[in-house]
Design brief:
The structure is a homodimer of 394-residue chains. Chain A has 394 residues and is of the alpha/beta class. Helices cover 18% and strands 29% of the residues of chain A. Chain A folds into 4 domains: 156 residues, MoaB/Mog-like domain (Molybdenum Cofactor Biosythetic Enzyme, Chain A, 3-Layer(aba) Sandwich), CATH 3.40.980; 55 residues, Molybdopterin biosynthesis moea protein, domain 2, CATH 3.90.105; 78 residues, Molybdopterin biosynthesis moeA protein, domain 3 (Beta Complex); 71 residues, Beta-clip. In chain A, helix 1 crosses helix 6 and helix 3 packs parallel to helix 6. The relative contact order of chain A is 0.13. Chains A and B meet through helix 2, strand 15, helix 3, strand 22 and helix 7 of A and helix 2, strand 15, helix 3, strand 22 and helix 7 of B.
């Protein structure tokens, strides 16, 4: 037996693992220049500043009459100010403008169409306007030199639109991190084979891959490998990608080969004080970080959120997902010395969280029912009903 | 002048517009059967129940020794229970099991490896186990007939994994709604052309398209069309897709042709009590719903969230995005009779929202800086600092 004698705290494990993860740099290797129409949800690789004012001229913000604002003083429906309708603006003359038109020289405000009436060659103005009223000023939205997007921004629709407004059609984004995923275990069946006692379908591979996709990466999913240390080692040694994830074979049983495999190279840690998720290993193989996740699905999910997600965030200099403060609807307990990963169902109207009680770490259905999770720190016995805690959304 | 004399309330506009939107049905036309490896983020078209128990047998939840639990009564390190290590389980005999192995007949609990020691052909058990301790029961995760995913579920990694666990490799999802997007306006420049006074780059087309993508749809973006009623009408009449979005030309100016275009077919409404977003029109052209958004970017965004998003949610029988309760850090005011769409920056630690003050509806930079928005209802003058309001995340 090779027991987990000393468990590393979650914080320590995170620190060690992340110290082996490189942030993507602004080099050709890590950056792709792509068209903005392809950029939605990608992560900006550098700050982008505007080379123009937006708008790049004073413009009418309404359909109406460009005027010298001073000249409309005292205008009212009963005592309208009369102006000539012309092609230039001065104290006595106004010009029709459409929304978005450049303001004619001399004009400093727009009288809204509904606040005036055309009478032959004249316009009756029924309401005074202040200087710049109904005028969009040059640079009102963005000034030349303003930063439009920042390194690490996940591109939202408004980011894409503001780049186009500034005449920027290409943007540098980080390439997607490539994560090699290797599921292992003799007790597992690949999809398509017939179910038999003692065997379950392998599902961690597709789950890890799906999370990798969700966190902006590309998953390279290797077919299932049995409990064969040599084969596992061979696959890992030849694997591509920025990071290798394995699932299964991390506990203390006779077929748990990940320790042997990683120990031949460089073992970073083995066993972390996380529940579920204790049997987690990390190492370095051919300069590549390897994270070996437990085979139980929810343990696997817990460690992915605790270690894989921050690793991908570090690569991309960004943050994925939302965390928020909620009140607990029930007590939750934890073992001192362990960080507990507790799935919760959130009521977004009441901002409360209901812990989803489960008896085992294999319970995938507790995750499909959950909106997110909370963490009970290792030095805390639990939280009481009504306590305000941070929930992380899936 | 064709003023907005009667503005429809936002609720009324939503009701009318959504009444013209069909929910996708469980027909071949609206459903695609796809492999689960392609299903992430797609929307389930029907409930899917499991045809198997997961696990489909009682299994060891730990590496250790399968035993009859009764036989371990009173075991302790100083007074271990001695058992034969065999190939079947009875009161005197235990069997080595790996995590995930089917429980041998007769065995009802597993003594963890670290709670026992092998001594020759015997095993010393140091700790008693309860019935089913360290055993994952048949159907513990999912019982045959349990619903794994529901119609309208947006497929998360755990959904994909649970389907694979149940041996389900294909899933029915709704096809992506196809949204035809037509930007209009003489004041606009297509990308690539040189900037000149009175002209700005058209950016609503790519923004609407990006939101459509984000809300699970496919955008068919038509090139920019100028203020030409005939050309606009022609494009709309020949447009494909489930829904048509136009931007620009919705106000009361001489070049605002959307009213003419829609009036020739069926106008649903014109002008809604939303700020920004008042100049919004909807109609039906060749049985297809048309939503005409104002050209100002943030007005366009407001109406997309108020009307387009719920329309796409109705098509797909789902909900996109997250809303949560936050405390306002500043007073916000609104004009009675209008629903106000206010961009906010959210502090997720404090759960507070800071309104982003802007002077115009053209201010895209206020949206890239915002995390979401709040709505001030039409019968409310505003909210006070400290009030708890619902924020919708972008």
């Amino acid at each position: 037996m090779r027991l987990f004698k000393e468990l590393l705290s979650v914080d320590e494990a995170k620190k060690i693992f992340l110290s082996k993860i490189k942030s993507f740099g602004e080099t050709d290797k890590d950056v792709e220049k792509i068209r903005i129409s392809e950029a939605l949800s990608r992560v900006a690789a550098s700050d982008v500043a505007s080379s123009v004012d937006i708008p790049h001229y004073d413009r009418a913000a309404m359909d109406g009459f460009a005027v010298v604002s001073e000249a409309t003083k005292g205008a009212s429906p009963s005592n309208p100010v009369l102006m000539k309708l012309g092609t230039h603006v001065d104290e006595e003359t106004c010009v029709w403008v459409h929304t978005g038109d450049a303001m004619p020289e001399g004009g400093d405000a727009v009288v809204k169409a509904e606040d005036a009436e055309v009478v032959g060659e004249y316009v009756e103005v029924f309401r005074p306007v202040r200087k710049y009223e109904n005028v969009g000023r040059r640079g009102e939205d963005v000034k030349r030199g303003d930063v439009l997007i920042r390194k690490g921004d996940i591109m939202k629709p408004a980011h894409v639109a503001i780049l186009r407004s500034a005449g920027i059609e290409e943007v540098e984004v980080f390439r997607k991190p490539c994560i090699f995923v290797l599921p292992t275990g003799d007790e597992l069946l690949p999809p398509g084979e017939e179910l038999k006692p003692g065997k379950v379908y392998e599902s961690n591979g597709i789950m890890v891959s799906s999370y990798v996709t969700q966190w902006g990466g590309i998953a390279e999913l290797h077919p299932l490998v049995g409990d064969d240390a040599d084969e596992i080692a061979e696959v890992i040694e030849e694997a591509g990608g920025d990071l290798i994830i394995t699932t299964g074979g991390t506990s203390v049983g006779k077929r748990d080969y990940m320790l042997d495999v990683l120990s031949k190279h460089e073992l970073l840690f083995r066993g972390i004080a996380l529940r579920p998720g204790k049997p987690t290993l990390a190492g370095i193989v051919n300069e590549k970080p390897v994270l070996s996740l437990p085979g139980f699905p929810t343990a696997c999910i817990a460690v992915m959120h605790i270690l894989l997600k921050p690793a991908m965030e570090k690569m991309l200099s960004t943050k994925f997902g939302v965390s928020l403060k909620v009140r607990l609807l029930e007590n939750v307990t934890s073992k001192i010395g362990f960080t507990s990963f507790v799935r919760v169902k959130i009521d977004f109207e009441a901002m409360t969280a209901l812990p989803i009680a489960t008896s085992g770490s294999g319970i995938l259905s507790s995750v499909t029912a959950a909106d997110g999770y909370i963490l009970i720190p290792e030095n805390v016995e639990g939280f009481e009903r009504g306590e305000r805690v941070t929930a992380y959304l899936f």
